[in-house]
Amino acid sequence: MDAFSPYLLPLALLPLSISLLLFLRKRDSSKSNHPPGTSGWPMIGENIVFVMSGPQKFVNDRMKKYSPDVFQTSLLGEKMAVFCGATGNKFLFTNENKLLTSWWPQSMKKALLFPSFVESSLKEVSALKRSFLHDILKPEALKQYIPLMDSMARDHLEAEWLPNDEVKVFPLMKKYTFDLACKLFMSVDDPEHVNRLAKHFTLVTSGMFSVPIDLPGTAYNGAIKGGKLVRDQLMKIIIARKKELMENKETAGRDLLSRMILFTDENGEFMSEMEISNNIIGLLVASYETTSTAITFVLKYLAELPHIYNEVLKEQMAIAKLKGPNDLLSWEDIQKMKYSWNVACEALRLTPPGQGAFREAITDFTYAGFTIPKGWKTFWTVHTTHKNPKYFADPEKFDPSRFEGSGPAPYTFVPFGGGPRMCPGKEYARLEILVFMYNVVTKFKLQKSIPDEKIVFHQSPTPMNGLPVRLQLHEK
User: Fold this and answer.
1) pTM for the complete prediction?
2) Does 91 score more than 90 pLDDT?
3) Distance between CA atoms of 377 and 72, rounded to whole angstroms?
């Protein structure tokens, strides 16, 4: 959910003829003591530059030009301070609800939420306590889902990979991660139902960061329509499940949906159906977008780097040899996948699926000698540390050994954020990635069909051709 989109470009082009009559406004930060930077073109901000250069170059160029600590820009129609480096990450992560609060772009809220929630703060939108989310997504709670994850991974490979000599990884990962999320979160596994929900959900994720022009044919219009269809379907699922629970026709707490329905706050109040829908949508967005991208790029690096693949294969085959043909993976098996997880982490460092997260200043405060006014938006991003040679030597090299021992320095490796706001789904993502790695590596050797396939940036990094790979089945 924490990413930008190139669909900002149409908005930039629409008022360009008007904007060319004006001049590029640059703020003199010395007069206001705001962070150095520029607000770009009137109405447009720096949206065009961000889209054309990509997030990595956009951030690096401004860190060099303005400040390695914090710089200002204008994106998504908002004055924004981008905090940089491990120190900036730590400051934002540790000042949640003190100096800052979570914030989403309006276009994203309109696409995802019921209209009555659009003007609400994120704290009001999420009736589900963060402690509860951590509770239901912590390792102890997720252990029970490992056999199901393994079973679904096997079924997916059996249906979509084994009949083919070549597959496109990225679209298949989108399908797999969404199927798995529907099953684990809501026990929805009817293919027709899941495909219909996925079709509408794709409209949402494709347009929720796009230009907020609600006209027929625009990505944003598609996101608005898709969001309504998704919410309508979720409401039917939620209402039906509540009825089952009231009639004692299902085991309480069998999945995340049932646990949400049964959850009460400190006053003994249950969540409304709309509040439950908001939370389910949030979980679907996070699991669908980020995890599918993460698995895709893990497999990309395994296909590109035979020496890395061979070490992963050695570790995974040692686990497989101790299991019978019908035995499913267990928590103990996952704990043995140490090198495999280091490989996954290095893939997340080099090609992070999530770009960062927004906050809003709830009071004036100073940072690095600059004033951040109340109401300004802030942004932390993986691109100020993940490839920064200050934190990672030879940063472009794929080196899983970076994660041995105590691993990278605090607040430098942040694909899941950090501090009190660290993504509660981190462990879910870890399990999903490792289970799928196990199933692919123990069955296939991978070879990229397009060695120099270009990576483009949409909501997250995307292989331009879907990452086609040739499959070589292991001999038994």
Assistant:
1) 0.88
2) yes
3) 10
